Amino acid sequence: MSSTGTPDLSAIADPRLWRLALQIDSEALRAVLWSTVEDASLIRFTLPLDPTLPPAAALEEAVYAAPVLLADFAAVDVVLRTRAYLLAPSPLPDDCVRRMLKYACVASDSDVIRPSAASRGDTAVHMAVDADVARFLARTFRNPRVHSHAAVLDRYFGSKSALGNSGKVYVHFHQGASLREADILCYGPGGRLAIVTTHRCDTDDDAVYYIAATAREAGLDLASDEILLCGNQQLRDSVMPKLRRYASYVMPLIFPSAAFRVGRDALNAPFPLIILPLCE
């Protein structure tokens, strides 16, 4: 089931037998719910965020417009889509990470610094979260697990990159109401993450440039290393033939078959939310 706005969720008789995953970006709150005891149960819907309000106020308005989100679920995961992150050793003191994020011009003194475990135990994706948003999530949901979208992608892709002798570039496309972004993760031979970055791509040529430039910056070879695309299908299918002019191996990522347990509509849900259970 999918919708824009709040759907009829009368089928959820006991929320404690369901999981909730939320993806929050600058434009919308995207929700995915599924039963822990029944297959093919996935429900997804999207609530727009009011761009005229501060981020926390817009989020609060959207959440309270969908009372089902406040139910007592078995688990709640929140994925924040933000470019205010960086990959760095872990653990590091918050003050050190804050200085690094401020140097990159993506954090302020009032932001909350949150590390999200990366695919290797000695690194983390450190992100800056608006303090009011962090407080709202903490008081609204029971023990929510808050993740950077980049860390979720890395935990999944990193587990796929350890085998083989070639480097790999994974590109996840996000399409919002007006915002198009590409998450680019580069792994060297052996599966060590070299670069993770998110770029706004208003055109296909922007995407091709950022993908090729990031791969080269990571020391990968466009003639022999793999580039695998996933996420928004329209963007993927549009960028792929243009990218193949410059790289020898460009293919769509095979969608994880295990994700279909919750229903075929998993194909249309936000990819970071669908792979979350596969990273546990």
Outline of this structure?
Helices cover 26% and strands 31% of the residues.
Q: What does this protein structure show overall?
A:
The protein has a six-stranded mixed β-sheet. It has a five-stranded mixed β-sheet with strand order 12-11-10-13-14, with helices on both faces. The chain has a three-stranded antiparallel β-sheet with strand order 6-8-7. The protein is 26% helix and 31% strand. Helix 1 packs parallel to helix 3. The chain has seven helices and 14 strands. The chain is α/β, with parallel strands linked by helices and 280 residues long. Strand 13, helix 6 and strand 14 form a beta-alpha-beta unit. The longest helix has 14 residues. The model has no long low-confidence stretch (mean pLDDT 93).
Question: If helices are DSSP runs of H or I spanning 4 or more residues, what is the number of helices?
Answer: 7
Structural class by sheet pairing and helices: alpha/beta
Evaluate the radius of gyration: 19 Å
| Major β-sheet profile | 6 strands, mixed
Shape: globular
Sequence of strands across the biggest β-sheet: 1-4-3-2-5-9
Q: Percent of residues in beta strands?
A: 25-35%
Our measurement of the CA-to-CA distance between the termini, rounded to an integer number of angstroms, reads 25 Å
Report the average pLDDT across residues: 93
Write the element-wise H/E pattern from the N-terminal end onward: EEEEHEEHEEHEHEEEHEHEH
Q: Report helical residue fraction.
A: 25-40%
Query: Could you name the ranges where pLDDT drops below 50 across 5 or more consecutive residues?
Result: none
Quaternary state, please?
Answer: single chain
> How many strand segments?
14
